[in-house]
Amino acid sequence: MPTPQVQSLHVYPVKALAGPGPGEAAVEPWGLAGDRRWLVVDAEGRQITQRQQPRLALARAEELPGGGLRLTAPGMPALVVEVPEPVGTIPVEVFSDVVEAVPAGPEAATWWHGYLGFACRLVHMDAPEKRRPVNPRYSEPGDTVSFADGFPLLLTTTSSLDALNSLIAQGDHADEGPLPMNRFRPNVVIDGTAPWAEDDWRRVRIGEVEFHVAKPSGRCVVTTTDQRTAARGKEPLRTLARHRRFGDGLLFGQNLIPRGAGTLRVGDPFEILD
Hints:
Low-confidence stretches: none
Shape: globular
Largest sheet: 8 strands, mixed
């Protein structure tokens, strides 16, 4: 088996949108630098993700120097959004959490209204003190996260995807496979480990940074969304329900919490510490 290493890195500047796959990314306490610092919310301040709007998969955000964004989407002109001044925050709802965020300018709200067809706006999480606390059942005091679902980073492995695709090929919806890794929207993809070995990891080192493996990732309808077309199918949830159901969760990947700072790079060695 090859030496485990980082195959790819992924940053999603706006939650639920496509994002870049950089060759390197700095690790901050709440996730990769620039990852999910922006969020689209409805008129009541509730998060909008691919769960409700699969067409978000077709929109793309690229971070610009200084933290601003360049947004693109089918049928829409490209839009550059500057980081808003840290004043006039509004409460926004991310699952059961309510946090303060700064709205982007009205041109961003108009752009998103034009794309999704209803009133919505883009917001930015600006200051570290406004990060959300991580679920204390799986973390230490002071652990925080930005607009990601619940944890700072998500790790997946190529071997487990290969194993999952083999199971899909044996099922009722084999025509939907093989699925690409982007269905699972990871931050870090590791190559060279055994299938499902991540179930037993508790502490790992990626390059120069150590991470706590907090809990497996329970998967939702977003994984059934083709990230190129926004069409939905049955897989991988049908196969995960048969082979990867643990309690109420259909599991694929592991949630990580950094236990240090540094920079991750494609090709970095991966080490299991515990």
